[in-house]
Amino acid sequence: MLKKIIKNAMLFIFSLLGFILIASYSIETNAKNKTFNDPTKIEKNKVGLVLGTSKTLKSGRINLYFKYRIDAVVALYKNKKIDFVLVSGDNGNKQYDEPTDFKEELIKQGIPADKIFLDYAGFRTLDSVVRAKEIFGQQQITFISQQFHNERAIYLAEKNDIKAVGFNAKNVSRRYGLKVQLREYLARTKVFIDIIFGVKPKFLGEKIEIR
């Protein structure tokens, strides 16, 4: 009896690991030739969607994911590869407001306030992607985040009939971002689960025109 339980447990673990690896490989393969590191090489889109993250770490130090995404947005805008910036992030409470943090920093970096639109209900990448189409009317978009994140966003976009490319913000060191990198494997697996079960964004709402 014990041997049977152990065998079944091992089969489940190996099946789960296989699913995780297949999900990650599928998302990475799908994004081939759709993400770019050089702002002069990427096609122009009206809107660049920067995917939110916290401005600071628990230690109070600046979050490098945040800093490098800001740098990437500025590079695209200055190279005239986007006309508007849509910042999508978590604003779950008054003390935590990713979109506003991004907007304030982007304005400091020279991007006009009237070129920046905020999506306060980007609680997950799925929400950010679907809301870009359903709320902000974008059927073609440039994602701005680290490459692993752009790859996942592109996969979700295409499953929702959005044409997308990604501009890769500078990545962080393996040691600095180890926890995020491990979590990404689970996030990619969740993509497939969400698609299978038809998961929708937490909130939709009134449409907002970007112009």
CATH uppermost class: Alpha Beta
Number of domains: 1
* Major sheet details: 6 strands, parallel
- The value of Rg in angstroms is 18 Å
Tally of strands: 6
Amino- and carboxy-terminal Cα gap? 66 Å
The portion of residues forming beta strands comes to: 5-15%
The unreliable regions are none
CATH topology: Rossmann fold
What is this entry, summarized?
The chain is α/β, with parallel strands linked by helices and 211 residues long. Helices cover 46% and strands 14% of the residues.
Descriptive account of the structure:
The protein is of the alpha/beta class. It has one domain: Rossmann fold (3-Layer(aba) Sandwich), CATH 3.40.50. The protein contains 6 helices and 6 strands, in the order αββαβαβαβαβα. It has helices at residues 2-30, 64-78, 98-108, 125-134, 147-159, 178-197, and strands spanning 35-36, 47-51, 84-88, 116-119, 140-146, 163-169. The protein has a 6-stranded parallel β-sheet, with helices on both faces. It is globular, with a radius of gyration of 18 Å. The mean pLDDT is 93.
